[in-house]
Each structure stands twice: as structure tokens, then as C-alpha cells.
Design goal:
Blueprint lengths: L1 E15 L4 E3 L4 E2 L3 E18 L6 E4 L2 E3 L6 H13 L4 E8 L10 H16 L5 H11 L11 E4 L12 E5 L6 E7 L9 H11 L3 H20 L3 H20 L10 H15 L4 E5 L5 E6 H12 L6 E5 L6 E3 L2
Parallel strand pairs: 5-7
Antiparallel strand pairs: 1-4, 1-14, 2-3, 4-7, 4-8, 5-6, 8-9, 10-12, 10-13, 11-12
Helix pairs in contact: 1-2, 1-3, 2-3, 5-6
Bound molecules: ligand 2P0.
Ligand 2P0 binds next to helix 2 and helix 4.
Length: about 325
């Protein structure tokens, strides 16, 4: 006997950044965040729980991946089994429609799709509380990809994370803004986000200042979205990014996620802004730059940034939908 379901989810990019955890076991964030779910970068995942399967099996883009005990995928599947009250192992098939090798985040779309597919395959409810808990065990930013448009995720205070749920601030299609994803290099990052956050929490002298300012930035971001104030949202987007990288740079050893092209792209965006093209940069735990821009300026900006020396590719995304179930 087997039960199978397939779900898809899109990547999201934080405009107000999450960096640091208040509970590492449950993967609860120390700060709230605000993100845009993208209309591009999709992960599609099928899960089937099968009697007689000796162990969980995971295939990513046609390549088998070993699932170690204690790894994030195992934690999500174990939690699903525990809630469903069975011990059947899972066959998981996952595919990204983008090159993971380019170092683009795939964990948020990956774990949002896994949470929905696994919950459905196991016969669990698919309420937001259930899915957010499952997705977060995989990746702290994954609950944001459950919802579309612009999404806020509060840090919450409860020990079980029940008040740390994503909330949609504006649905996709309601605001003419875009995010350009500027690929500035190939290869994966040297220090993963979880490790970088923990290093920042334990060694960066700026960590407490980061926590304080991050809460204010989230409030600023929420107000900007409520007022549809693009400039205010852009300013807090850039500020939150620079604050996050400042706290990471001050860790021991220092976490420097940028390359030279990252800096050139940020400078180009600043220069274009001085010329009247309103756009704002943000960078995650890797070298690529994501640039927030009004839709009317997007094509011109993509052309300008594509011409920066060292830029490999510029992808364009609008606000996109939350996770959805695919018909079998
Ligand atoms: C974010 N990042 O808000 C921030 C900004 C990277 C920089 O969420 O350890 O896979 O699984 O909770 O969610 C990093 O990726 O980290 C991240 P974990 P996650 O988007």
C-alpha cells in the first residue's frame, strides 16, 4: 500500500532579513522577516510513503542523494510519520527548474514543497500551522514560500513556534514590482546559512544590535507595504541587507559572502538611483544580488545590470504564488 502526493513551491527572497535562531532544534527565528515569493525558481516534489521500503529514498534532479540521520529531510519526514502514527519510509522525488549549482537558494522552495506533499501523502491536515511547522524543520525561510505575494514571518515568542506563522501582506498581482536576480558567480557558498547564523550569534559583537534593529526594520517594512510605498520598502530592504552582512562580517572568523562583482552590481544600482532609476539591492548568504525595482523600470535595469563586467545572468521575477498541490 502506498500514498502519494506532489506539490510545488517557489523560492522567496527576504527584503527584511532573517539571520539568527532563537531555537536551533525547532529552527525558530530570532528575528521576523519580510519576503517576496517569486514567480520563478520552482521546486516540484513527489512523496510516497511505501510499506516495505527499507529506508527513506531521495532523488534530486534525477540524482540519488543520501539521507543521513539527523539531516533536515529526515527531520521533516520523521515529524510527518510521528503525526500520522505510522513508520512507513518515504520515496521523495524532487526537481528544481533552475540550476542549483549557480548557488541560488533552493531550500525554501524545496522544503515548502516537501511539507505540502508529505503532509498530503500521509493524510495529515494541510492547515498553515501544520505546514509551517513541517517546512521550518527543513529551513527557517521555507514557511514564507507557503504563501504568495509579499509575506511577513514574525519571530514569535512561544516555545513551540505556534505564533511564528507566515502572513500574506499583499497577494501576487496586486503591486507592479519585480525582483531581478543577478547571478555574479558559480559554485556553492563556503559557509551555509545555519552555520553562519550560529557563528554570528555566538561571536559577533553586533548581534544584540542586529536583533534590536531587525525588529524595527520589520515594522518599517510592514508599514511600507501597507502604504504601497516603494521607496520606503526599497530603503529598508537595502538597510536590512547591509545590517545583516555587517553582523556576519563582524563574526569570528568573518563571514564574507560577497565577491567583487557583488560590489560592482550594488554600486551600479546606487549610480542608477542617482540618475533617477529607483532600485534597491539585497544580498543573501551568497554572492548574487537581488534588485527590487518597479515593473516599468525592470527591462532597462536588467539591461544595465547584465552589462556589468562579470555578471553571468539576470533573471526577472514578479511576486508569485504560494505552494500548491499538483494533480497526480
Ligand atoms: C532570509 N537567509 O531571510 C535569510 C537572509 C539567508 C540570508 O533564510 O538555517 O535555509 O534553514 O533556517 O532559511 C537562509 O536560509 O536557513 C536564509 P535555515 P535558510 O532569507
Amino acid at each position: 500500500m502506498s500514498s502519494r502526493a506532489t506539490a510545488s513551491a517557489r523560492a522567496n527572497i527576504a527584503l527584511v532579513k532573517y539571520w539568527g535562531k532563537r531555537d536551533r532544534r525547532l529552527n525558530l527565528p530570532a528575528v521576523g522577516s519580510l519576503s517576496m515569493t517569486l514567480s520563478a525558481l520552482t521546486t516540484t516534489t513527489s512523496v510516497s510513503f511505501e510499506e516495505g521500503l527499507p529506508d527513506d529514498e531521495f532523488t534530486l534532479n534525477d540524482t540519488p542523494v543520501v539521507i543521513d540521520n539527523g539531516c533536515r529531510m529526515r527531520r521533516v519526514l520523521d515529524e510527518v510519520r510521528s503525526q500520522a502514527g505510522f513508520s512507513k519510509r518515504a520515496r521523495v522525488l524532487s526537481r528544481n527548474d533552475f540550476a542549483t549549482a549557480a548557488g541560488l537558494a533552493s531550500s525554501a522552495s524545496g522544503f515548502a514543497a516537501l511539507a505540502l506533499a508529505a503532509a498530503r501523502a500521509a493524510g495529515l491536515d494541510t492547515k498553515l500551522t501544520t505546514l509551517a511547522h513541517l517546512a521550518r524543520l527543513g529551513s527557517g525561510s521555507a514557511p514564507r514560500s507557503l504563501l504568495g505575494g509579499i509575506v511577513a514571518l514574525e519571530a514569535g515568542e512561544s516555545a513551540d513556534g505556534s505564533d511564528c506563522l507566515p502572513v500574506q501582506l499583499t497577494p501576487e498581482g496586486s503591486w507592479e514590482i519585480e525582483l531581478l536576480v543577478v547571478i555574479t558567480g558559480s559554485g556553492s557558498k563556503e559557509v551555509g546559512s545555519a552555520e553562519g547564523m550560529e557563528l554570528s550569534r555566538t561571536t559577533s559583537p553586533y548581534y544584540s544590535a542586529w536583533l534590536r534593529e531587525a525588529a524595527r526594520d520589520l515594522a518599517r517594512g510592514r508599514r511600507a507595504v501597507a502604504a504601497r510605498d516603494f521607496g520606503a520598502l526599497g530603503r529598508v530592504t537595502e538597510a536590512s541587507c547591509f545590517r545583516m552582512h555587517a553582523v556576519a562580517l563582524a563574526a569570528t572568523p568573518a563571514l564574507l559572502y560577497w565577491n567583487g562583482v557583488t560590489v560592482e552590481v550594488i554600486r551600479k544600482v546606487q549610480a542608477l538611483r542617482r540618475l533617477g532609476l529607483e532600485a534597491y539591492s539585497t544580498v543573501d548568504a551568497g554572492p548574487h544580488v537581488k534588485v527590487l525595482v518597479c515593473s516599468r523600470d525592470s527591462a532597462r535595469l536588467a539591461q544595465e545590470l547584465g552589462a556589468v563586467d562579470g555578471v553571468l545572468e539576470v533573471l526577472t521575477a514578479r511576486p508569485g504564488p504560494g505552494a500548491w498541490e499538483e494533480s497526480e
